[in-house]
UniProtKB/TrEMBL annotation:
Annotated Pfam families: DUF6463
Membrane spanning residue stretches: 51-72, 84-100
Organism placement in taxonomy: Bacteria, Bacillati, Actinomycetota, Actinomycetes, Pseudonocardiales
UniProt key word Transmembrane helix: yes
Family matches, as InterPro entries: DUF6463
Keywords per UniProt: Membrane, Transmembrane, Transmembrane helix
Name of protein: Uncharacterized protein
Length: 127
C-alpha cells in the first residue's frame, strides 16, 4: 500500500508540473522567468508569465513529487512514513476539493488513504 501511495503521489505531482509546462504552455514564459521580469511583478495582478510560473515550476507539483519519492525511498528501506504525512495529504486534498471540486482531487485522496492504511499496518507489524 505504501508503495502504491508513493507512486500515486509522485505521478500526481510530476503530471501537474509537466502538463502545466507543456499542455498549458507555461514553458513558453521561461525566457521571462530567467530574465528577471518577475522580480517586480505585482502578485495581486500577476502577469501571464508569473501565473504560468506559479502554475508549473513553483506549484505544489514539484514538492508533491518529492514527497512521493521520499515515501518510495522509505518503503525500499522498509521504513514506514510517519502517519502525519498521510493525514496532512488527506486534509490538504479535501480542502482543495472544497475550493476547486472539478479537479482530479480523488487521486491524492486515494494515495493518502493508501498511505495511512500502509503506515498503520506497518506500525502494527512492528509492535
Amino acid at each position: 500500500m505504501i508503495k502504491w501511495a508513493g507512486r500515486l503521489i509522485t505521478l500526481y505531482g510530476a503530471a501537474h508540473t509537466l502538463l502545466a509546462l507543456t499542455l498549458l504552455g507555461a514553458a513558453r514564459h521561461a525566457g521571462a522567468w530567467f530574465s528577471g521580469a518577475l522580480w517586480h511583478d505585482d502578485l495581486a495582478h500577476m502577469s501571464t508569465a508569473n501565473t504560468a510560473y506559479w502554475l508549473s515550476v513553483f506549484s505544489f507539483g514539484p514538492p508533491l513529487a518529492t514527497v512521493g519519492l521520499i515515501v518510495l525511498w522509505l518503503d525500499r528501506r522498509q521504513l514506514a512514513p510517519p502517519q502525519f504525512l498521510a493525514w496532512a495529504l488527506g486534509i490538504w486534498t479535501l480542502l482543495g476539493a472544497v475550493v476547486l471540486p472539478l479537479t482530479p482531487w480523488p487521486i491524492p485522496l486515494v494515495a493518502g488513504v493508501l498511505l495511512l492504511a500502509g503506515t498503520r499496518r506497518a506500525v502494527r507489524r512492528a509492535a
